[in-house]
Amino acid sequence: MLKIYAGTISTTMVYRSKRLIIDMEQPIHHIMTSNPTTYRSAWSFYLLFYSPKFNNVY
User: Fold this and answer.
1) Based on the structure, what is the number of domains in the chain?
2) pLDDT by residue (tens digit) across 48-57?
């Protein structure tokens, strides 16, 4: 491991399905500047993070 980024994870029920909220301590990594979008099907899911450096990161 080269670096450790600490933070907390919680969920919110603003929409029909719960949304993931990531609250990072400083300093933050460029991938963790916004909360991810969760895409799911019946048996799997993936998280889509937006990065100002790379755009969408899966």
Assistant:
1) 1
2) 888 888 888 8
